[in-house]
Design brief:
Length: 420
């Protein structure tokens, strides 16, 4: 069995999966270590107010909104090279967080790290899905999500233990995050050029910008998800820190529990997406969102808030997996990366506006109303999921691609028979 594994790792797909696993786990560690301490860093060292949390989130999401233009600018770069460059930006941004002394001091590093982070969100699923055929895409993305959770889990343990014993501070944690992001960049740089799990001699051609009517449901999912998730991630940890007075060890323990559950379930859930389809699985996820967000906003109890936070963070990665596998089923390979970028741009159109608006509202009505607004976004997303039908919603370009693939396969079969 061990020899079989080693032989598989020497194949293009095996090597690609190993490199993607290392990069995903290292990037997960970097992002988690940063997330674990950044809310307390903003509160304790920079003295940011609740509304400023919303404003800094809006600044962070601007590169996500501009992602389609950044992707178009570098469309001639292969996906592995683009991903490696993005992770270098993430490393630089995270490493310099601790040098800031106020709102405007941290803003440039937020923007730089955000450029890397949002590019990674677009390219990582595209690289992951290139490792296998369409029918197994969810399973592969689920396994990579599990490795991301493993990196996240390790970061939480390191932060929890490091802060408890005084081995780590804010600045050292940010530098550690940067180093791990750099490791991820080195790993992904030599990712092989694959399509449906088969090696290609050169990188697949990508369109600079893609906006097509056929992908409207993917765009709607992205837009609504952007509004919902940015409310939660702007104020979810802030409520636990500011309203319930939880400190770094407690925050780390909460994230530790959520990540452990995510690591254990991600691969299984990815397979369930393959088995039951995006329509059913995304519907279940958005019902869970409504329950978690309503509990967070309506019940003023720290235990309930923690349970709702864990539930939400457990469900969060599944939205991206379902949306990405749906897009793969309706779009041709050449449209995948730029369409993922367009979806993230639409997601962040909401992500820039919503934190600003809810941050302003929070000054007058408290934190509960923004979470109820997020419930509305989740409810609308549920309605969109009921209209998903990948088999009947394939684009004309995808149908032509399938016809051409079938023609080439038939031709190869004929040649094989003739050759005998």
């Amino acid at each position: 069995m061990e020899q079989g594994l080693m032989a598989w790792l020497r194949t293009p797909v095996g090597r690609g999966f190993a490199l993607a696993t290392i990069a995903t786990a290292a990037a997960g560690f970097a992002m988690s270590a940063n997330q674990n301490v950044v809310a307390n860093f903003f509160e304790d060292d920079l003295g940011l107010t609740g509304s400023q949390f919303g404003y800094i989130t809006a600044i962070r999401e601007i590169p996500g909104f501009l992602l389609i233009f950044l992707t178009a600018l570098f469309y001639r770069l292969s996906l592995p090279r683009l991903t490696a460059g993005a992770l270098v930006l993430l490393a630089v941004g995270y490493s310099f967080f601790g040098t800031a002394s106020g709102f405007w001091g941290v803003a440039p590093w937020v923007v730089i790290s955000s450029m890397g982070y949002h590019t990674w969100l677009q390219t990582q699923p595209a690289l992951g899905m290139s490792l296998t055929v369409e029918s197994r895409s969810g399973g592969v993305l689920g396994r990579l999500a599990a490795f991301n959770s493993a990196g996240t889990l390790l970061a939480m343990l390191v932060v929890l233990v490091g802060f408890h014993f005084g081995w780590l501070g804010y600045s050292s944690t940010f530098v550690l995050s940067g180093v791990c992001a750099l490791i991820a960049a080195v790993a992904i740089y030599n990712f092989p050029h694959l399509h449906d799990g088969e090696l290609r001699a050169e990188a697949a051609r990508r369109e600079p910008i893609v906006l097509r009517r056929e992908y409207k449901y993917y765009y709607l999912l992205s837009l609504l998800d952007g509004g919902r998730q940015q409310i939660f991630f702007s104020f979810g940890l802030w409520v636990l820190v500011h309203h319930f007075n939880l400190q770094v060890p407690a925050i780390s323990a909460i994230l530790l529990a959520a990540t452990t559950l995510g690591m254990l379930s991600s691969s299984w859930v990815g397979r369930m997406v393959d088995k039951h389809g995006e329509r059913q699985m995304l519907a279940v996820v958005n019902v869970a969102y409504v329950v978690a967000l309503a509990g967070y906003g309506l019940i003023d109890n720290v235990v309930v808030a923690v349970l709702c936070y864990v539930t939400y963070t457990l469900m969060f990665p599944l939205s991206a997996i379902g949306a990405a596998t749906y897009l793969r089923k309706v779009a041709p390979a050449a449209d995948m990366a730029p369409s993922l970028a367009m979806g993230l741009t639409m997601q962040h159109a909401a992500a820039v506006v919503v934190p600003l608006a809810t941050g302003y509202v929070l000054n007058y009505v408290g934190y509960r109303v923004p979470f109820l607004v997020a419930c509305v976004f989740a409810s609308l997303t549920f309605a969109v999921t009921r209209r998903l039908s990948p088999e009947t919603q394939k684009s004309e370009r995808r149908l032509r691609e399938e016809a051409e693939t079938a023609r080439l396969a038939e031709s190869a079969a004929v040649q094989s028979v003739t050759g005998r």
